[in-house]
Write a structure and sequence with these properties.
Elements: E1 9-12, H1 21-38, H2 46-54, H3 57-75, H4 90-104, H5 113-120, H6 132-139, E2 144-149, H7 153-163, E3 169-172, H8 173-176, H9 183-193, E4 200-204, H10 207-215, E5 219-223, H11 233-242, E6 247-249, H12 251-254, H13 262-269
Parallel strand pairs: 1-2, 1-4, 2-3, 4-5, 5-6
Helix pairs in contact: 1-3, 3-4, 4-5, 6-13
């Protein structure tokens, strides 16, 4: 990747890369549990109260997100658009998996059906990492900014509004009837932006996502985020040695502040040196 002649479009993974799902989801679960347990009008069974008072909500949040990764990975091996089964959105999965996890942890009855629907929607309103919004606004002056996420379009629209993420396009696996790391998603995204694959760069905190994008001809930008990488330490080291990641933002470059992460990407690209080139496709426009 050349920072003098950078890609035309930056496409972004969202959960973990741009937004801090772990903090927001854990806070929501623990807060809603406390409200349910302390509500004078709630009829929470005694056994559920006992289990709810001892459960680790950070662990529960991690398990919930793990089901999302397992679900999308299992669905990426074939083209769902050609499957006999209808495409299941991540919204549907988040609700179904929440019900399953509550049952597994003997917590069924902690929340009403309406409350469960509301809690499952928290994935639409995740807070961004401190470095995300301002850096994206700067990058938008020089690049097409587009999501390329496994979450569905309605969630992306809400996330963009909630976290002030200035995307010109919202592209989701939902558009392509398949989930990353299926090549259908990466190839389809470039096509609908009106760009060649090599004119696109994927920005992600997941090396598996980047490896699949690289196999499709994308350029790659890796941002290390705390606890977001699924690969082992040795696998990460091997990827670094192999050199197929074009831009690698290390944890010390992130620092959990507005000065790291995407701000470091912005600095390395020397924002403003590259002109904006518009693309056409049927990805949802923020203003659409």
């Amino acid at each position: 990747m050349s920072t003098i002649n950078p890609p035309k479009a930056l496409l972004f993974d969202v959960f973990g890369t741009l937004v801090d799902w772990r903090t927001t989801v854990t806070h929501t679960l623990s807060t809603q549990a406390a409200l349910a347990l302390n509500s004078p009008s709630a009829s929470v069974p005694t056994s559920v109260r006992l289990f709810a008072s001892t459960i680790s909500w950070p662990d529960f949040a991690q398990q919930w997100h793990d089901t999302y990764k397992t679900f999308t990975s299992s669905q990426s091996t074939t083209s769902l658009s050609r499957s006999k089964h209808p495409f299941k959105t991540t919204d549907q999965h988040h609700h179904d998996s929440l019900l399953h996890l509550l049952h597994t942890h003997s917590l069924t009855g902690l929340w009403s059906a309406d409350q469960l629907l509301a809690i499952a929607q928290i994935w639409h309103f995740i807070d961004p990492w401190p470095d995300t919004s301002a850096a994206l606004h700067d990058l938008s002056k020089s690049f097409i900014l587009c999501t390329l996420s496994n979450t569905n379009v309605s969630s992306l629209r809400d996330l963009a509004h909630h976290a002030d993420l200035p995307f010109s396009r919202l592209l989701s696996s939902e558009h392509f009837g398949a989930y990353k790391p299926s090549p259908l998603v990466y190839n389809g995204a470039a096509e609908h932006l009106g760009l060649r694959n090599e004119q696109c760069a994927l920005v992600s905190a997941q090396l598996g996502d980047l490896r699949a994008a690289r196999a499709c001809g994308f350029q790659t930008v890796y941002i290390e985020r705390m606890d977001e990488e699924d690969w082992s330490v040795e696998e990460v080291r091997e990827a670094r040695r192999e050199g197929w990641v074009d831009m690698w933002i290390e944890m010390e470059d992130v620092r959990g502040s507005a000065a790291g992460g995407l701000a470091e990407v912005r600095g390395r690209f020397k924002t403003g040196a590259s002109g904006y080139v518009g693309g056409r496709g049927w990805g949802d426009s923020i203003k659409g």
